[in-house]
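Support request from a user on the community tier.

User writes: "When I paste my structure tokens into the form, the page sometimes reloads and wipes my input. The last time it worked, I copied everything first. Here is what I submitted, just in case something in the input itself triggers the reload:"
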């Protein structure tokens, strides 16, 4: 499956952004999906994930209550709604997808930059 992330940008602290992940090539609904992020000089961390069925979901502690992951299988698209953004949310965000029977994500999209100014 091919993944195309979009929606990043430069915003101020407290603003909101919605990232989108358009999938193509295979039946998106069969895959779990998620969002990783990589801040400058740091590794890639899983921020949020959603199962193939839409439930359950997972959120990193740092984004709980502020980010919401969702999927629209009819549109082959996943989303990450980000609110109350903080400067520490600045990173390249990657959408990912994977087989529900594995613990990893086999498919990665290109990143989209999110920059939050204070």
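"...and here is what came back when it finally went through:"
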């Amino acid at each position: 499956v091919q993944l195309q992330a979009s929606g990043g940008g430069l915003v101020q602290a407290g603003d909101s952004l919605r990232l989108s992940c358009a999938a193509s090539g295979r039946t998106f609904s069969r895959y779990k999906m998620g969002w990783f992020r990589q801040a400058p000089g740091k590794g890639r961390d899983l921020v949020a994930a959603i199962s193939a069925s839409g439930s359950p979901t997972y959120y990193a502690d740092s984004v709980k209550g502020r980010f919401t992951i969702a999927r629209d299988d009819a549109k082959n698209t996943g989303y990450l709604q980000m609110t109350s953004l903080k400067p520490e949310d600045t990173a390249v965000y990657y959408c990912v997808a994977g087989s529900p029977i594995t613990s990893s994500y086999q498919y990665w999209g290109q990143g989209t930059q999110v920059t939050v100014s204070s």
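Agent notes: The reload is a front-end session timeout and is unrelated to the input. The chain has a mean pLDDT of 96. The CA atoms of residues 29 and 61 lie 26 Å apart. Escalated to web team.
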